[in-house]
């Protein structure tokens, strides 16, 4: 008996803010969740699996129109034509009460009730699948106690959308402990909701397969499904990558890099290493340049220089399709900050003021709030919208994130010092 366990497909998940990136492969990014589902169906047919388990969040939200549902239906019909059954629980994104549009499911599809836990018994395979869909977007109670007892003589599978006892970066839904799961006596728990793959337990096997397709720069690495084979008492499982866009965060230490001409070699080497053995996918890269380097002064005097250097280096990566989503700079100036801070001039006052902010969290937050209030009102509406999106996505710090705010202030300080380019001997005056 063979089956596929997938979760968190988020079909037609909106990718906001991409249009502001010049040269972004918009169509490939927007169609990525659909193409990943197509690849899942292709795998299921090729591997002749008996059924597919979908552990919640098949959809990202209520359909904008019927095209989303019709696309998914077409894929499910392909599975039907191959004799493959599909078992679905609805999660917080596609909860029963949240979906207003609908079309009839193909008859090879079983969607578990949102009112109570159910069991689907497959006598020919000796399998019992137990599941409970989300009735609403927020399910604060533990659903596991309501799951049916294990069916004797069967391979028992629990299909559940849950945060367990809480996972970083994920809201708490249908919380449950590993002890709760084990107490049911099932052989396999097919979980969903957590977007990073995680094997929680081997006996019984409890798995979050992760989402099928990464959607932004915080969902990095290979994404795919679990391909499970059960032969007698032996279970073997293999993770199969199915993503068509793979997100990376590549941090590059620029401290050894002294000249602009050296950037190309360093960046090409780092990007080439990141895409090694990754297959035919689009590699979406967020590059972070770190370290103390004199190139910080060049960037301060000619903003955009290092981003352009990274973009140029990406064009030289061989054997892979690379798109630079963003270049972030976390560089430090080689100027002697301590000596500058001992000076009596304006630069010395700047350094001492930043040191005061470093030790006073409320003052730091108040300064940033006042500065943002003054600046934001002067920006074009489209820029304000882009900033709001980045804030919602966590790409820019919140005002209560003291560490991130301090990093921004120190980066601004370093830029001022580098632009003024005060020789070290003068900075001690």
UniProtKB/TrEMBL annotation:
<keyword id="KW-0269">Exonuclease</keyword>
<protein>
    <submittedName>
        <fullName>DNA repair exonuclease</fullName>
        <ecNumber>3.1.-.-</ecNumber>
    </submittedName>
</protein>
<dbReference type="GO" id="GO:0004527">
    <property type="term" value="F:exonuclease activity"/>
</dbReference>
<keyword id="KW-0540">Nuclease</keyword>
<dbReference type="InterPro" id="IPR014576">
    <property type="entry name" value="Pesterase_YhaO"/>
</dbReference>
<feature type="domain" description="Calcineurin-like phosphoesterase">
    <location>
        <begin position="1"/>
        <end position="196"/>
    </location>
</feature>
<dbReference type="InterPro" id="IPR029052">
    <property type="entry name" value="Metallo-depent_PP-like"/>
</dbReference>
<dbReference type="Pfam" id="PF00149">
    <property type="entry name" value="Metallophos"/>
</dbReference>
<dbReference type="InterPro" id="IPR004843">
    <property type="entry name" value="Calcineurin-like_PHP"/>
</dbReference>
<dbReference type="InterPro" id="IPR050535">
    <property type="entry name" value="DNA_Repair-Maintenance_Comp"/>
</dbReference>
<dbReference type="InterPro" id="IPR041796">
    <property type="entry name" value="Mre11_N"/>
</dbReference>
<keyword id="KW-0378">Hydrolase</keyword>
């Amino acid at each position: 008996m063979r089956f596929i366990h997938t979760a968190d497909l988020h079909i037609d998940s909106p990718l906001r803010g991409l249009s502001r990136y010049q040269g972004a492969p918009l169509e490939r990014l927007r169609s990525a969740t659909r193409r990943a589902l197509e690849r899942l169906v292709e795998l299921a047919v090729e591997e002749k699996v008996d059924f597919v388990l979908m552990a919640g969040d098949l959809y990202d939200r209520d359909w904008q129109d019927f095209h989303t549902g019709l696309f998914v239906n077409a894929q499910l019909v392909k599975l039907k034509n191959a004799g493959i059954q599909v078992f679905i629980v609805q999660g917080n994104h596609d909860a029963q009460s949240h979906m207003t549009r609908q079309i009839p499911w193909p008859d090879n599809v079983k969607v578990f009730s949102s009112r109570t836990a159910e069991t689907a018994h497959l006598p020919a395979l000796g399998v019992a699948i137990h599941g409970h869909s989300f009735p609403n977007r927020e399910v604060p109670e533990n659903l596991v106690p309501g799951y049916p007892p294990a069916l004797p003589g069967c391979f028992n599978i629990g299909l559940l959308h849950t945060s367990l006892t809480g996972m970083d970066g994920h809201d708490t839904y249908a919380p449950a402990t590993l002890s709760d799961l084990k107490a049911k006596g099932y052989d396999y728990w097919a979980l969903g909701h957590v977007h990073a793959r995680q094997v929680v337990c081997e006996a019984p096997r409890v798995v979050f397969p992760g989402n099928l397709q990464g959607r932004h720069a915080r969902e990095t690495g290979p994404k795919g499904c679990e391909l499970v084979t059960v032969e007698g008492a032996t279970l073997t499982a293999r993770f199969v990558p199915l993503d068509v866009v793979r997100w990376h965060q590549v941090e590059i230490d620029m401290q050894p890099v002294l000249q602009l001409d050296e950037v190309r070699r360093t960046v090409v080497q780092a990007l080439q290493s990141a895409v090694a053995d990754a297959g035919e996918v689009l590699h979406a890269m967020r590059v972070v340049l770190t370290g103390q380097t004199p190139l910080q002064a060049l960037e301060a005097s000619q903003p955009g220089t290092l981003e352009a250097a990274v973009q140029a280096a990406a064009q030289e990566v061989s054997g892979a399709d690379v798109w630079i989503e963003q270049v972030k700079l976390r560089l430090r100036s080689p100027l002697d900050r301590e000596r500058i801070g001992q000076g009596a001039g304006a630069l010395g006052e700047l350094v001492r003021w930043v040191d005061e902010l470093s030790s006073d969290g409320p003052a730091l937050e108040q300064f940033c709030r006042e500065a943002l209030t003054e600046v934001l009102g002067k920006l074009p509406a489209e820029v304000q919208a882009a900033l709001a999106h980045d804030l919602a996505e966590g790409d820019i710090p919140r005002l209560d994130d003291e560490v991130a705010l301090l990093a921004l202030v120190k980066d601004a300080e370093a830029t001022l010092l580098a632009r003024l380019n005060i020789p070290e001997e003068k900075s001690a005056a």
